[in-house]
Amino acid sequence: MCISLWIYLRGPVQIVACTTESIRIEVYNRTANAKPIARIYVSINSTCPLLDFYPEKLLSLKPNYKVQEKMKKITIAIDGFSSCGKSTMAKDLAKEIGYIYIDSGAMYRAVTLYCIEHNLFGPDGEIKTDELKQDIDKIHISFRLDPVTSLPRTCLNGNDVEERIRTLEVSSKVSPIATLGFVREALVRQQQELGKEKGIVMDGRDIGTTVFPDAELKIFVTASPAIRAQRRYDELRAKGQPASYEDILHNVEERDRIDQSREVSPLRKADDAILLDNSHMTITEQKEWLINQFKRAAQ
Ligand SMILES: Nc1ncnc2c1ncn2[C@@H]1O[C@H](COP(=O)(O)OP(=O)(O)O)[C@@H](O)[C@H]1O
Ligand SMILES: Nc1ccn([C@H]2C[C@H](O)[C@@H](COP(=O)(O)OP(=O)(O)O)O2)c(=O)n1
Protein backbone atom coordinates (compact mmCIF):
# COMPACT_ATOMS: atom_id res chain seq x y z
CA MET A 1 0.00 0.00 0.00
CA CYS A 2 1.27 3.47 -0.81
CA ILE A 3 -0.16 6.69 0.59
CA SER A 4 0.94 10.07 -0.62
CA LEU A 5 -0.43 13.39 0.58
CA TRP A 6 0.30 16.85 -0.67
CA ILE A 7 -1.39 19.72 1.10
CA TYR A 8 -0.55 23.19 2.23
CA LEU A 9 -1.22 22.84 5.94
CA ARG A 10 -2.19 26.19 7.34
CA GLY A 11 -3.03 25.27 10.89
CA PRO A 12 -3.26 22.53 13.56
CA VAL A 13 -4.28 19.14 12.25
CA GLN A 14 -6.66 16.73 13.92
CA ILE A 15 -7.35 13.16 12.85
CA VAL A 16 -11.10 12.92 13.37
CA ALA A 17 -11.68 9.39 12.15
CA CYS A 18 -9.40 6.55 11.25
CA THR A 19 -10.69 3.18 10.16
CA THR A 20 -9.17 0.38 8.13
CA GLU A 21 -10.86 1.96 5.12
CA SER A 22 -10.24 5.65 5.49
CA ILE A 23 -8.56 8.43 7.42
CA ARG A 24 -10.32 11.75 7.91
CA ILE A 25 -8.23 14.76 8.85
CA GLU A 26 -9.37 18.28 9.67
CA VAL A 27 -7.16 21.36 9.51
CA TYR A 28 -7.95 24.31 11.79
CA ASN A 29 -7.01 27.97 11.91
CA ARG A 30 -4.35 28.87 14.46
CA THR A 31 -6.83 31.28 16.00
CA ALA A 32 -9.67 29.62 17.91
CA ASN A 33 -12.25 28.75 15.32
CA ALA A 34 -14.89 26.07 15.60
CA LYS A 35 -14.89 25.33 11.89
CA PRO A 36 -12.13 23.45 10.10
CA ILE A 37 -10.58 25.33 7.19
CA ALA A 38 -9.93 22.09 5.34
CA ARG A 39 -11.09 18.49 5.41
CA ILE A 40 -9.10 15.70 3.85
CA TYR A 41 -10.41 12.22 3.18
CA VAL A 42 -8.00 9.47 2.29
CA SER A 43 -9.52 6.15 1.41
CA ILE A 44 -7.46 3.04 1.93
CA ASN A 45 -8.72 -0.03 0.22
CA SER A 46 -6.43 -2.76 -0.97
CA THR A 47 -8.73 -3.62 -3.88
CA CYS A 48 -9.02 0.01 -4.82
CA PRO A 49 -5.83 1.82 -3.96
CA LEU A 50 -6.55 5.01 -5.84
CA LEU A 51 -6.20 7.79 -3.32
CA ASP A 52 -7.92 11.10 -3.22
CA PHE A 53 -7.89 13.98 -0.84
CA TYR A 54 -9.40 17.37 -0.99
CA PRO A 55 -8.77 20.42 1.16
CA GLU A 56 -12.36 21.56 1.18
CA LYS A 57 -12.41 25.13 2.32
CA LEU A 58 -9.20 26.10 0.58
CA LEU A 59 -11.09 25.71 -2.70
CA SER A 60 -12.84 28.97 -2.24
CA LEU A 61 -11.08 32.27 -2.15
CA LYS A 62 -14.24 34.02 -1.01
CA PRO A 63 -17.05 31.55 -0.54
CA ASN A 64 -20.43 33.13 -0.12
CA TYR A 65 -20.89 32.01 3.48
CA LYS A 66 -24.07 34.04 3.85
CA VAL A 67 -25.70 31.87 1.23
CA GLN A 68 -24.25 28.69 2.64
CA GLU A 69 -24.83 28.99 6.37
CA LYS A 70 -28.58 29.21 6.36
CA MET A 71 -28.94 26.40 3.88
CA LYS A 72 -28.60 22.65 4.20
CA LYS A 73 -25.48 20.95 2.91
CA ILE A 74 -26.36 19.08 -0.25
CA THR A 75 -24.85 16.98 -3.04
CA ILE A 76 -24.84 18.46 -6.53
CA ALA A 77 -24.49 16.22 -9.58
CA ILE A 78 -23.80 17.81 -12.97
CA ASP A 79 -23.90 15.42 -15.90
CA GLY A 80 -24.12 15.86 -19.60
CA PHE A 81 -22.50 15.69 -22.99
CA SER A 82 -18.85 16.27 -23.71
CA SER A 83 -17.54 19.85 -23.78
CA CYS A 84 -20.81 21.58 -22.99
CA GLY A 85 -19.53 23.53 -19.98
CA LYS A 86 -20.19 21.14 -17.09
CA SER A 87 -16.90 21.73 -15.32
CA THR A 88 -17.05 25.49 -15.94
CA MET A 89 -20.45 25.60 -14.24
CA ALA A 90 -19.46 23.19 -11.48
CA LYS A 91 -16.28 25.12 -10.61
CA ASP A 92 -18.10 28.46 -10.63
CA LEU A 93 -20.81 27.15 -8.33
CA ALA A 94 -18.38 25.41 -5.96
CA LYS A 95 -16.35 28.60 -5.61
CA GLU A 96 -19.45 30.64 -4.93
CA ILE A 97 -20.84 28.38 -2.22
CA GLY A 98 -17.60 27.01 -0.74
CA TYR A 99 -18.22 23.39 -1.77
CA ILE A 100 -15.69 20.76 -2.86
CA TYR A 101 -15.41 20.46 -6.63
CA ILE A 102 -14.49 17.15 -8.26
CA ASP A 103 -14.06 16.67 -12.01
CA SER A 104 -14.76 12.95 -12.38
CA GLY A 105 -13.81 13.06 -16.09
CA ALA A 106 -10.29 14.05 -15.05
CA MET A 107 -10.01 10.71 -13.24
CA TYR A 108 -10.93 8.74 -16.39
CA ARG A 109 -8.53 10.93 -18.36
CA ALA A 110 -5.71 10.21 -15.88
CA VAL A 111 -6.22 6.45 -16.25
CA THR A 112 -6.10 6.97 -20.05
CA LEU A 113 -2.86 8.93 -19.82
CA TYR A 114 -1.38 6.12 -17.74
CA CYS A 115 -2.34 3.64 -20.49
CA ILE A 116 -0.75 5.81 -23.19
CA GLU A 117 2.45 6.21 -21.19
CA HIS A 118 2.65 2.51 -20.33
CA ASN A 119 1.96 1.20 -23.79
CA LEU A 120 -1.40 -0.29 -22.83
CA PHE A 121 -2.97 0.54 -26.20
CA GLY A 122 -2.32 -1.89 -29.06
CA PRO A 123 -1.44 -0.81 -32.60
CA ASP A 124 -5.12 -0.52 -33.58
CA GLY A 125 -6.03 1.39 -30.45
CA GLU A 126 -7.32 -1.69 -28.62
CA ILE A 127 -6.86 -1.63 -24.85
CA LYS A 128 -4.65 -4.30 -23.28
CA THR A 129 -7.35 -4.98 -20.71
CA ASP A 130 -5.63 -7.76 -18.78
CA GLU A 131 -2.50 -5.68 -18.34
CA LEU A 132 -4.51 -2.64 -17.25
CA LYS A 133 -6.35 -4.80 -14.72
CA GLN A 134 -3.01 -5.88 -13.30
CA ASP A 135 -1.78 -2.29 -13.23
CA ILE A 136 -4.88 -0.70 -11.74
CA ASP A 137 -3.31 -1.00 -8.28
CA LYS A 138 -0.41 1.12 -9.47
CA ILE A 139 -2.55 4.02 -10.60
CA HIS A 140 -2.83 6.69 -7.92
CA ILE A 141 -5.01 9.69 -8.70
CA SER A 142 -5.21 12.71 -6.44
CA PHE A 143 -6.11 16.37 -6.64
CA ARG A 144 -3.66 19.05 -5.64
CA LEU A 145 -4.96 22.51 -5.04
CA ASP A 146 -3.44 25.22 -7.24
CA PRO A 147 -2.42 27.93 -4.74
CA VAL A 148 -2.91 30.66 -7.37
CA THR A 149 -6.27 29.73 -8.88
CA SER A 150 -7.57 27.75 -5.86
CA LEU A 151 -8.74 25.10 -8.30
CA PRO A 152 -7.88 21.41 -8.22
CA ARG A 153 -5.12 20.07 -10.45
CA THR A 154 -5.14 16.38 -11.30
CA CYS A 155 -2.13 14.31 -10.30
CA LEU A 156 -1.21 10.87 -11.54
CA ASN A 157 1.16 8.96 -9.29
CA GLY A 158 2.25 12.22 -7.71
CA ASN A 159 2.90 14.08 -10.96
CA ASP A 160 0.80 17.02 -12.02
CA VAL A 161 -0.86 15.96 -15.29
CA GLU A 162 -3.55 18.64 -15.49
CA GLU A 163 -2.43 19.87 -18.94
CA ARG A 164 -1.47 16.45 -20.31
CA ILE A 165 -4.89 14.91 -19.65
CA ARG A 166 -6.60 17.62 -21.74
CA THR A 167 -4.88 16.88 -25.07
CA LEU A 168 -6.83 15.61 -28.07
CA GLU A 169 -4.90 12.32 -27.87
CA VAL A 170 -6.28 11.62 -24.40
CA SER A 171 -9.74 12.87 -25.44
CA SER A 172 -9.78 10.46 -28.36
CA LYS A 173 -8.85 7.45 -26.19
CA VAL A 174 -10.72 8.11 -22.96
CA SER A 175 -14.21 6.88 -23.87
CA PRO A 176 -13.17 3.22 -24.46
CA ILE A 177 -11.29 3.31 -21.13
CA ALA A 178 -14.46 4.60 -19.46
CA THR A 179 -16.43 1.61 -20.77
CA LEU A 180 -14.35 -0.82 -18.67
CA GLY A 181 -16.30 -2.06 -15.68
CA PHE A 182 -13.29 -2.55 -13.39
CA VAL A 183 -12.04 0.99 -14.08
CA ARG A 184 -15.50 2.45 -13.39
CA GLU A 185 -15.86 0.43 -10.18
CA ALA A 186 -12.54 1.71 -8.84
CA LEU A 187 -13.28 5.33 -9.72
CA VAL A 188 -16.93 5.33 -8.61
CA ARG A 189 -15.88 4.00 -5.18
CA GLN A 190 -13.44 6.85 -4.82
CA GLN A 191 -16.00 9.41 -5.95
CA GLN A 192 -18.58 8.14 -3.45
CA GLU A 193 -15.99 8.26 -0.67
CA LEU A 194 -15.23 11.89 -1.53
CA GLY A 195 -18.91 12.82 -1.41
CA LYS A 196 -19.80 10.99 1.81
CA GLU A 197 -20.13 14.20 3.81
CA LYS A 198 -22.07 16.08 1.10
CA GLY A 199 -21.08 19.69 0.34
CA ILE A 200 -19.74 18.57 -3.03
CA VAL A 201 -20.24 19.49 -6.67
CA MET A 202 -19.20 16.69 -9.01
CA ASP A 203 -19.45 16.69 -12.77
CA GLY A 204 -19.34 13.77 -15.17
CA ARG A 205 -21.61 11.36 -17.00
CA ASP A 206 -23.06 9.08 -14.33
CA ILE A 207 -22.99 11.23 -11.21
CA GLY A 208 -26.76 11.65 -10.89
CA THR A 209 -27.52 8.09 -12.00
CA THR A 210 -24.81 5.93 -10.39
CA VAL A 211 -22.37 7.83 -8.17
CA PHE A 212 -24.88 9.94 -6.21
CA PRO A 213 -28.39 8.72 -7.12
CA ASP A 214 -29.71 10.51 -4.01
CA ALA A 215 -28.18 13.89 -4.86
CA GLU A 216 -30.50 16.74 -3.89
CA LEU A 217 -29.68 18.70 -7.04
CA LYS A 218 -29.08 17.04 -10.40
CA ILE A 219 -28.43 18.95 -13.59
CA PHE A 220 -28.13 17.45 -17.07
CA VAL A 221 -26.36 19.82 -19.49
CA THR A 222 -26.47 19.76 -23.25
CA ALA A 223 -25.62 22.01 -26.22
CA SER A 224 -25.42 21.33 -29.94
CA PRO A 225 -22.33 19.34 -31.09
CA ALA A 226 -21.20 22.22 -33.33
CA ILE A 227 -21.29 24.70 -30.46
CA ARG A 228 -19.51 22.29 -28.13
CA ALA A 229 -16.77 21.61 -30.69
CA GLN A 230 -16.33 25.36 -31.25
CA ARG A 231 -15.95 25.94 -27.50
CA ARG A 232 -13.29 23.22 -27.21
CA TYR A 233 -11.53 24.50 -30.34
CA ASP A 234 -11.42 28.04 -28.93
CA GLU A 235 -10.10 26.71 -25.64
CA LEU A 236 -7.24 24.73 -27.22
CA ARG A 237 -6.32 27.64 -29.51
CA ALA A 238 -6.27 30.01 -26.55
CA LYS A 239 -3.82 27.67 -24.82
CA GLY A 240 -1.64 27.65 -27.94
CA GLN A 241 -2.33 23.95 -28.59
CA PRO A 242 -2.73 22.75 -32.18
CA ALA A 243 -6.38 22.09 -32.99
CA SER A 244 -8.56 21.27 -35.96
CA TYR A 245 -12.27 22.08 -35.67
CA GLU A 246 -13.23 19.05 -37.79
CA ASP A 247 -11.16 16.67 -35.63
CA ILE A 248 -12.68 18.09 -32.46
CA LEU A 249 -16.24 17.85 -33.82
CA HIS A 250 -15.60 14.24 -34.80
CA ASN A 251 -14.17 13.53 -31.34
CA VAL A 252 -17.14 15.14 -29.58
CA GLU A 253 -19.67 13.14 -31.63
CA GLU A 254 -17.77 9.90 -31.27
CA ARG A 255 -17.48 10.30 -27.51
CA ASP A 256 -21.19 11.09 -27.22
CA ARG A 257 -21.92 7.88 -29.10
CA ILE A 258 -19.64 5.70 -26.93
CA ASP A 259 -20.70 7.40 -23.68
CA GLN A 260 -24.40 6.84 -24.44
CA SER A 261 -24.11 3.27 -25.70
CA ARG A 262 -21.73 1.67 -23.19
CA GLU A 263 -23.11 -1.12 -21.03
CA VAL A 264 -21.92 0.09 -17.64
CA SER A 265 -23.44 3.39 -16.45
CA PRO A 266 -24.21 4.88 -19.87
CA LEU A 267 -24.67 8.62 -20.16
CA ARG A 268 -28.33 9.39 -19.62
CA LYS A 269 -30.37 12.01 -17.87
CA ALA A 270 -31.57 10.88 -14.44
CA ASP A 271 -35.35 11.06 -14.23
CA ASP A 272 -35.14 13.72 -11.52
CA ALA A 273 -32.42 15.81 -13.21
CA ILE A 274 -33.11 19.31 -14.53
CA LEU A 275 -32.28 19.66 -18.21
CA LEU A 276 -30.23 22.69 -19.28
CA ASP A 277 -29.46 23.46 -22.92
CA ASN A 278 -26.81 26.18 -22.64
CA SER A 279 -26.18 26.52 -26.41
CA HIS A 280 -27.18 30.16 -26.32
CA MET A 281 -26.23 31.06 -22.76
CA THR A 282 -23.14 32.95 -21.67
CA ILE A 283 -20.93 31.60 -18.90
CA THR A 284 -22.29 34.30 -16.58
CA GLU A 285 -25.90 33.46 -17.42
CA GLN A 286 -25.42 29.74 -16.76
CA LYS A 287 -23.64 30.49 -13.48
CA GLU A 288 -26.55 32.64 -12.28
CA TRP A 289 -29.05 30.01 -13.40
CA LEU A 290 -27.18 27.33 -11.45
CA ILE A 291 -26.89 29.42 -8.29
CA ASN A 292 -30.66 29.87 -8.38
CA GLN A 293 -31.13 26.11 -8.71
CA PHE A 294 -28.82 25.62 -5.73
CA LYS A 295 -30.71 28.15 -3.60
CA ARG A 296 -33.96 26.35 -4.33
CA ALA A 297 -32.55 22.87 -3.66
CA ALA A 298 -30.67 23.78 -0.47
CA GLN A 299 -33.52 25.62 1.24
N1 LIG B 1 -21.98 29.03 -21.91
C1 LIG B 1 -20.78 28.99 -22.48
N2 LIG B 1 -20.53 29.76 -23.56
C2 LIG B 1 -19.33 29.71 -24.17
N3 LIG B 1 -18.30 28.94 -23.79
C3 LIG B 1 -18.49 28.15 -22.72
C4 LIG B 1 -19.73 28.11 -22.01
N4 LIG B 1 -19.62 27.22 -21.00
C5 LIG B 1 -18.37 26.72 -21.08
N5 LIG B 1 -17.69 27.28 -22.09
C6 LIG B 1 -16.33 26.96 -22.55
O1 LIG B 1 -16.45 25.71 -23.24
C7 LIG B 1 -15.28 24.93 -23.03
C8 LIG B 1 -15.71 23.55 -22.49
O2 LIG B 1 -16.22 23.75 -21.19
P1 LIG B 1 -15.99 22.69 -20.03
O3 LIG B 1 -16.54 23.29 -18.79
O4 LIG B 1 -14.59 22.20 -20.01
O5 LIG B 1 -16.95 21.52 -20.56
P2 LIG B 1 -17.20 20.05 -20.01
O6 LIG B 1 -16.77 20.01 -18.58
O7 LIG B 1 -18.67 19.84 -20.18
O8 LIG B 1 -16.41 19.16 -20.88
C9 LIG B 1 -14.39 25.71 -22.08
O9 LIG B 1 -13.42 26.37 -22.84
C10 LIG B 1 -15.34 26.71 -21.43
O10 LIG B 1 -14.67 27.90 -21.08
N1 LIG C 1 -18.36 10.28 -14.62
C1 LIG C 1 -17.75 10.16 -15.81
C2 LIG C 1 -16.91 11.18 -16.28
C3 LIG C 1 -16.30 11.02 -17.50
N2 LIG C 1 -16.50 9.87 -18.17
C4 LIG C 1 -15.81 9.62 -19.44
C5 LIG C 1 -16.56 10.05 -20.64
C6 LIG C 1 -15.74 11.13 -21.28
O1 LIG C 1 -15.62 10.89 -22.67
C7 LIG C 1 -14.39 11.04 -20.61
C8 LIG C 1 -13.77 12.37 -20.25
O2 LIG C 1 -14.70 13.12 -19.48
P1 LIG C 1 -14.62 14.70 -19.45
O3 LIG C 1 -15.71 15.17 -18.55
O4 LIG C 1 -13.24 15.14 -19.14
O5 LIG C 1 -14.90 15.06 -20.93
P2 LIG C 1 -15.23 16.49 -21.49
O6 LIG C 1 -14.60 17.49 -20.57
O7 LIG C 1 -16.73 16.56 -21.44
O8 LIG C 1 -14.70 16.53 -22.85
O9 LIG C 1 -14.56 10.27 -19.42
C9 LIG C 1 -17.34 8.90 -17.72
O10 LIG C 1 -17.54 7.89 -18.38
N3 LIG C 1 -17.94 9.05 -16.52
From TrEMBL:
Cellular compartments annotated: Cytoplasm
* Keyword terms: ATP-binding, Cytoplasm, Kinase, Nucleotide-binding, Transferase
The catalysed reaction is: CMP + ATP = CDP + ADP; dCMP + ATP = dCDP + ADP
Keyword Transmembrane helix assigned to the entry: answer is no
Task: Supply the enzyme class, top level.
Answer: transferase
One Gene Ontology term of the molecular function aspect = CMP kinase activity
Q: Name one GO biological process term.
A: pyrimidine nucleotide metabolic process
Instruction: Name the Enzyme Commission number(s) assigned to this protein.
Output: 2.7.4.25
Q: Name one GO cellular component term.
A: cytosol
Domain Cytidylate kinase, residue spans: 76-295
What family, per the record? Belongs to the cytidylate kinase family. Type 1 subfamily.
- This one is known as Cytidylate kinase
Question: What species is this protein from?
Answer: Phocaeicola salanitronis (strain DSM 18170 / JCM 13657 / CCUG 60908 / BL78)
The primary gene name is cmk
